[in-house]
Automatic annotation (TrEMBL), chain A:
CDD domains: TM_PBP1_LivM_like
Keyword Transmembrane: yes
Pfam families according to UniProt: BPD_transp_2 (PF02653)
Keywords: Cell membrane, Membrane, Transmembrane, Transmembrane helix
PANTHER family named in the record: ABC TRANSPORTER ATP-BINDING PROTEIN, HIGH-AFFINITY BRANCHED-CHAIN AMINO ACID TRANSPORT SYSTEM PERMEASE
A Gene Ontology term for the protein's cellular component: plasma membrane
Ranges that cross the membrane: 32-52, 64-82, 88-107, 112-130, 161-181, 211-230, 250-275, 282-300
Domain of life: Bacteria
Membrane topology: Multi-pass membrane protein
Cell compartment(s), UniProt: Cell membrane
The protein's name in its UniProt record: Branched-chain amino acid transport system permease protein
UniProtKB/TrEMBL annotation, chain B:
Recorded GO MF terms: ATP binding; ATP hydrolysis activity; L-isoleucine transmembrane transporter activity; L-phenylalanine transmembrane transporter activity; L-valine transmembrane transporter activity
Record-linked Pfam families: ABC_tran, BCA_ABC_TP_C
InterPro entries, A to Z: AAA+_ATPase, ABC_AA/LPS_Transport, ABC_transporter-like_ATP-bd, BCA_ABC_TP_C, P-loop_NTPase
GO terms, biological process: D-alanine transmembrane transport; L-alanine transport; L-isoleucine import across plasma membrane; L-valine import across plasma membrane
Record-given protein name: Amino acid/amide ABC transporter ATP-binding protein 1 (HAAT family)
Superkingdom as given in the UniProt entry: Bacteria
Xref: PANTHER family: AMINO ACID ABC TRANSPORTER ATP-BINDING PROTEIN, CONSERVED COMPONENT OF ABC TRANSPORTER FOR NATURAL AMINO ACIDS-RELATED
Record keywords, A-Z: ATP-binding, Nucleotide-binding, Transport
Residue ranges of domain ABC transporter in the record: 20-253
Any one GO CC term of the record: plasma membrane
């Protein structure tokens, strides 16, 4: 548990955030586009991790809310001719509103059944999106040029703007989730992560906490969906509701990075993008390698890279916990406990 | 109002004099009847010891009182309220703390955070107030020095103390102890009894399921013996332990 290591890690993180904030002045257009996608993926990974890593809701349908966000944005701008700046928050709100009935249905299920339920719900949303009039049916449609131009008259300006928006989204998603985890609710969530039954016995309302988490993720997923529409400049059922891009890859990222931590999803996303850059030329081998890595991590290090770091005594770079702090009162009864290195083991 | 009906339906003494009342409670697992038509009343300030051979239904009884399992028949009242259909966490907030026979720590959280969860969620406190309450519970159970340790690294004795600290955080009025003395040495058991005595002095009513009879006998004000899901003998500790039937089914004498 070395403090220099922790300070070093925090320095790297701070430098990384600063570099991202200065991105438009530091990077070329290609890098900015890749980073834009990276921030979308980080946002999605943070949300999937919150659900699966803490609230024990394994979702294989989060692409459903990504798609809803993209389609809502298209609807408000291209069809209702609203300003893009009004459409962005409205898209988030729409996703939240759609999440309520979806939740009412899938929360009747638990564990693996719930996972299948989320998948079915996402597919239903995709099929509905393909039938909606004005959205281009099954093959989708492009964002009208006047809508796109609201983000900047020139291509370079738009790349900068999309970059700034997705960076802002990732930062807000991260900070808000961090604040949630540090709150009283987050304390209960972290307890649920470690032992659900004991959390319930300690007074944590398992049902309400799950509901809150599920609804918490919806607007962020919707906003990520808006960003996917801007990135591709179009919406289409198969692209906007893509299970591989918005869920399967995300599961890979969270699992290799470290489920049930804030560092894990970010670490996993960095690793995923590096692997993709290096191995893009290997075609199918790239996917096979991702699969092998996933299986390896699940077998040998189920808590991922960050889990391994924790086991080696590395403290959380971004702690969401609560230190005991000074001011402990005098003991009242019984001798104080000590952790003797005796042969007693936890059964 | 509904409250009055609930009180009446519990039967027996009036609500203020009863902290826990089980009336005709049965629980089956498939065809296996684990708890049968069990009725039990606990008054405030009591320390009720529950004895019984393995398989007598002690853990099931606890799970029914704590709310982990619903009964198939009968009703459970806590402090005059019908809690038969109430969730575990709502019962905890109402004032029912419980320990697990096999400790269930939040392994990746610190000892302090473990107790903070119980103080804030179970005790209904804000985080600042919960922090003070967690410190109190840790001091009471002698864990203050280990507050910053990850709970997963504790020894069995300290895990049992942690179970206790979590159960008493927020000062629940009814404390359910599930074989908390099991596996402890005599000296450790003495410490535990001192802690329990302090908790009881603070006003908690205790229901304690235990195999370690000598520990139970020391502080229990009443004993109940469970056999095949029914209470076969109940009363003052010495009288119960001297009872012919109890000696037969439990002590094997």
């Amino acid at each position: 548990m070395s403090t220099p290591m922790l300070l070093g890690a925090r320095a790297i993180l701070a430098a990384g955030v600063l570099a991202c904030l200065a991105g438009p002045w530091l990077f070329d257009a290609n890098s900015l586009t890749v980073l834009t996608e990276f921030f979308i993926v980080v946002t999605l990974a943070l949300m999937w991790n919150l659900l699966a890593g803490y609230a024990d809701i394994i979702s294989v349908g989060q692409q459903g809310f990504v798609g809803v966000g993209a389609y809502a944005f298209f609807g408000f701008t291209a069809l209702l001719h609203m300003s893009v700046w009004a459409a962005v928050p409205l898209a988030a709100l729409t996703t939240l509103l759609i999440a309520v009935p979806v939740m009412a249905v899938i929360f009747r299920l638990r564990t693996a059944y719930l996972a299948v339920g989320t998948w079915v719900a996402a597919d239903v949303l995709m099929l509905i999106a393909g039938k909606l009039p004005g959205f281009g049916g099954g093959s989708g449609t492009s964002l009208p040029i006047p809508v796109v131009k609201q983000f900047g008259a020139r291509l370079g300006d738009r790349i900068d703007m999309f970059y700034a928006l997705s960076l802002g989204l990732a930062l807000i998603a991260f900070l808000a989730t961090w604040a949630l985890l540090r709150s009283r609710i987050g304390l209960g969530l972290t307890a649920m992560r470690d032992n659900e039954e004991a959390a319930g016995s300690s007074g944590v309302d398992l049902v309400r906490t799950r509901i809150l988490c599920f609804l918490w993720t919806a607007p962020f997923l919707g906003l990520a969906g808006v960003m996917t529409a801007l990135e591709k400049l179009r919406v289409a059922p198969t692209a906007s509701f893509n299970i591989t891009d918005w869920t399967i890859d995300i599961i890979f990222i969270v699992v290799i990075g470290g489920i049930g931590s804030l560092e894990g999803p970010i670490l996993g996303a960095i690793l995923f993008f590096l692997l993709r850059q290096w191995l893009a030329d290997f075609g199918a081998w790239y996917l096979i390698l991702l699969g092998v890595i996933s299986i390896g991590v699940i077998l040998f290090e189920p808590k991922g890279l960050w889990g391994a770091c924790r086991r080696w005594g590395f403290p959380d770079i971004l702690p969401a916990g609560h230190a005991p702090g000074p001011g402990a009162p005098e003991r009242v009864a019984g001798p104080d406990a000590q952790e003797a290195p005796a042969a007693r083991t936890v059964g | 109002m509904a409250d009055r009906n609930e009180t009446v339906s519990a039967g027996g003494p009036p609500a203020e004099a009863v902290i826990l009342a089980l009336a005709g409670v049965s629980r089956r697992f498939g065809g296996l009847r684990v708890i049968e038509e069990l009725s039990l009343t606990v008054r405030p300030g009591e320390i009720l010891g529950v004895l019984g051979p393995n398989g007598a239904g002690k853990s099931t009884l606890f799970n029914l009182i704590a709310g982990v399992l619903p009964p198939n028949e009968g009703s459970i009242h806590i402090m005059g309220r019908d809690v038969t259909a109430m969730t575990v966490w709502r019962r905890r907030r109402l004032g029912v703390g419980r320990t697990y026979q096999v400790p269930k720590p939040f392994a990746h959280m610190s000892v302090f955070e473990n107790v903070l969860v119980a103080a804030t969620h179970g005790g209904g406190l804000s985080i600042p107030a919960g922090r003070r309450e967690a410190q109190r519970a840790l001091a009471l159970t002698g864990l203050a020095a280990l507050a910053a340790k990850p709970a997963g690294t504790l020894s069995l004795l300290n895990l049992k103390r942690l179970e206790l600290a979590k159960a008493v955080a927020g000062k629940p009025r009814l404390l359910l102890l599930d074989e908390i003395a099991g596996g402890l040495t005599d000296a450790e058991c003495e410490d535990l009894l001192a802690i329990l005595t302090a908790i009881h002095r603070e006003g908690a009513t205790i229901v304690w399921v235990e195999h370690v009879i000598h520990a139970l006998k020391r502080i229990a004000s009443r004993l109940a013996v469970l056999h095949f899901g029914a209470i076969i003998c109940e009363g003052a500790p010495d009288a119960v332990l001297a009872d012919e039937r109890v000696r037969e089914v439990y002590l094997g004498a």
